[in-house]
Amino acid sequence: MVANSITVRAARTSDVKAIQAMRQQLESSKVLLGHELVSLYEAVPEFMVAVDAAGKVVGAGALHVMWEDLAEVRSMVVAETSRGLGVGKAILEGLLARAASLGIRRVFCLTFETEFFAKSGFQEISDVPVDPGTFEEMVRSHDEGVAEFLDLARVKQNTLGNTRMLKTL
User: Which domain holds residue 91?
Assistant: First the structure.
């Protein structure tokens, strides 16, 4: 259970360097794709953060809208000192609530943390759950996450070992 002193809120630009610092170890071990600082600033509207009572960012995650009824949870990270306290679950719940408020019915993730996401109702999938017309439109995206979702050959090195999971809201 998350300690009462943790708050989940929309990220601010002042949170980006803390998000980047939490990501660095996971990026170097290839658990998360690397992002330049400028990319994190550009994605601020997608992020939610968990903040402790002292105002320190102890976790983050992003929701990226991919299509009319589809979004991806991405860049989930919790500070090493806050793992196992429910911070990740609180962030995920915030992101799923945001997805529902946007009218999103399906949420995708590409993860090594299958047990964590399964506890929140995500199920493993083996195919791309969009119709051919939607696939043709989505393939035009320049976003690497969309390419990973579509399982395009050019991003296979990014997805090795990850599990594709989907939750219907």
Answer: 7-168
